[in-house]
Amino acid sequence: MLLVLQLVTGSFQQGIVCTSHTIVLEIFPKEARAFTCTACVAAWSVGLMVLSLFGYLFRDINWRYLQLALAVFSLHALVEWWFMDESLRWLLSNGKLNDAKKILKKAARWNQVDYKQVEDILHRDFQLTDTENESVDEDLDNTEMKIATESLMTDNMVEKQMKTQAIKKYNLTDILKTSSLRINSFILWYTWIVGAATYFGLTLVSSHLAGNRFINFFLSGVIEIPSQVIGLFLLNRIGRKRTMILWFTVSGISLVIATVLLTVFGNNEASSIIATGFSLIGKLASTGSFGVVFLYTPEIYPTNFRNSGLGIASSIGRIGGILAPFVSNLALVAMWIPGAIFGGMCLLAVVLSFRLPESTSHELPTTIEECETWEKK
């Protein structure tokens, strides 16, 4: 029963992570996407630090109490339904105009913006209809009821028209049929495997490093915060692609250096401490690369495949997560083995990533055709 419930927890947890990243990506404009997604990854790092603190406090108590304490963190889900709004991009891509307008009206009210201006921009940019604006200069004797009725009828007609022209719901076959998306997907899937294997592997190895295991695990969370701050500075300046390449390079080189130190100098105390330092640098860079992959992956897929694309990539990345405990356990045999494996995988990811397009200055694509046009440009 414990294993069954752990499987359910793990499955839904990954769904939460992927869906939350997708909706954050679609809610905010392109200028803010890097900041908001980086904040999400930073929150994960804080969670690691909290987990190490709870692990220390419950170290001499039955593990069941630790499980119960960690479960409390999910209580917010009981009220979250009434606070979260749907993605406007998804609503408009699926012809749900009235639902989208309800959210826009609330946003306009909260931000003290004239909703009429927002509505005009909506109709202009999405080319929905011009009929709503035709009655602006009509006889002022029209009653509010008549105006409201006509507006509602127009909205319903537009929504019906949008649904008949709704964007195709893509599946994995459609993505793999498109040459550019197929190649990009294969590369990203590998980077996900590398990112997950390196990230979780180094997190697990941290308890084998020199010093207290709780402190090392806590430091493995602390070291992730600088990577998010640096990443936030780089993402909009040098782009997603170059930032990802930079992080994988730093991670791979750091792990190779740590491997060499442990191999050449063995159990020497000074070399072990220096190797621990390089391992933490590798963890910092690994977190940075994982954060960029989380941001970059959904940016290259069309709206009606964005969440699925991120979910598939994350699922494939679990291959790395599955391998990570076995590779990290090799540290019990020789401390240099995990670093050698993870470092080599990171450097290969660097080479493959040069093929990927840049997404920083692009709006999120809505169709596969937009993705292809973007790739050509």
Can you walk through the features of this model?
With 377 residues, the chain is mostly helical. 76% of the residues lie in helices and 0% in strands. It has helices at residues 2-27, 30-57, 63-71, 77-80, 88-93, 97-110, 115-126, 144-164, 172-177, 179-205, 213-222, 224-235, 240-265, 269-299, 303-329, 336-353, 368-376. The longest helix is centred in the C-terminal third of the chain and has 31 residues, at 269-299.
Mean pLDDT: 80
Strand residues, percent: under 5%
- Specify Rg, calculated over alpha carbons: 25 Å
The total strand number stands at 0
Distance between the termini: 53 Å
The rough form would be described as: globular
Following the backbone from N to C, one meets helices and strands in this order, namely HHHHHHHHHHHHHHHHH
Class based on secondary structure composition and strand pairing: mainly alpha
* Helix fraction by DSSP (H/I, runs of at least 4): over 70%
Tell me about the largest β-sheet: none
Q: Unreliable runs, pLDDT <50, ≥5 residues?
A: 129-150
Count of DSSP helices?
Answer: 17
Q: What's the structural blueprint in terms of helices and strands?
A:
Blueprint: H1 2-27, H2 30-57, H3 63-71, H4 77-80, H5 88-93, H6 97-110, H7 115-126, H8 144-164, H9 172-177, H10 179-205, H11 213-222, H12 224-235, H13 240-265, H14 269-299, H15 303-329, H16 336-353, H17 368-376
